[in-house]
Amino acid sequence: MAPRLITIRPSHYNEKARWALDRFGVEYVEEPWMPALHFAGTIPPGLRYRRGQADRGSSRFSTPMLVTGDPSDPLLTDSTEIVRFAAAQGGAGDSFWSPEATVLDRHFSGRYGADTRRLVYHFLLPDTAMLAELAFRSVSPSQARMFVRLTPVVRKLLISRLKVTPELAERARTNIVAEFAQISERLSDGRRYLVGDHFSIADLSFAALSAIVIGVQPEEGYGAWLPALDQGPPGYGEFAKQLRATAAGAFVLRMFADERTAPRTPPRTW
Ligand SMILES: N[C@@H](CCC(=O)N[C@@H](CS)C(=O)NCC(=O)O)C(=O)O
User: Fold this and answer.
1) 110 ligand 1 Cβ < 6 A
2) Is 268 part of any domain?
3) CB 62 less than 6 A from any atom of ligand 1
């Protein structure tokens, strides 16, 4: 049986895993969820295989989770672990995991990924109609209807769990702008990739974890649906355009255009 990838469909950590599985040609079946409802998908394998670890920004039952079907390593519960699994299957060379690229991945997957998520939640959570569209474009109609009914509760839960306050969202915005300035500076010598002259985990990680603040569209390569820049709440589109105008923003879009193999499960039409 093909591995099962349990996701919060629009999430950037999930895009990181999906990108690697698609790129390295691993067959899998995605089981998409909306936030909070994902526990119905992740708790059974998490308990069964006694895996999963909470960290500052996620629970023990966070996504992505990959049920591999391999008795020696049946459940992978972290995006970088899933990239490792995919890269090993696809025979990625050592340059994909150079020490420098690995350190950058750890950095992007830590506070940076939490900052991009917090800011996007800050933009989107007040917009009930947008959340409904996101649900119907991400998961089955019955799950989306349940998400719509539960939106007030899920919104409260996310705000308190992920500390989506105006002050911390503002701090996240400042951090993201600083990160983009640093990456733009790194690219200013004309290099095509963040480390060396090959695509590595650093490029994949930075592009995937930045995609939600840049609003990368499915036709630009994102493996799920995100609101269009002129459709989402104003702050979302304006900030995305500001970032797209930087060298780091152009780099993210180029990584999706050149290095993102088509996703196995295309985004839904509504
Ligand atoms: N370190 C984890 C973080 C993943 C993460 O934060 N996942 C979020 C989606 S954006 C999640 O599933 N949150 C729900 C939860 O923690 O239960 C990874 O890289 O896989």
Assistant:
1) no
2) no
3) yes
- Per DSSP, the three-state class of 270 is coil
CA angle 167, 173, 179 (to 5 degrees): 140
Q: Judge if 49 and 115 occupy the same domain.
A: no
CA–CA dist 176, 184 (Å, integer) = 12
Q: Is 205 touching ligand 1 by the criterion CB < 6 Å?
A: no
Q: Which of 89, 120, 151 is the last residue before a domain boundary? A: 89
* Total of domains in the chain: 2
Q: Are both 11 and 70 inside the same structural domain?
A: yes
Confidence of residue 77 (pLDDT cuts 50, 70, 90): very high
The three-point CA angle 183-214-235 to 5° equals 120
* Tens-place pLDDT, residues 230-255: 988 889 999 999 999 999 999 999 99
Dist CA 145 CA 135 (whole Å): 8
Angle between helices 166-187 and 234-244 (to 10 degrees): 20
Domain range for 141: 94-259
Final residue in a domain of this structure, among 89, 120, 141? 89
- Asked if residues 232 and 123 have their Cβ atoms less than 8 Å apart, the reply is yes
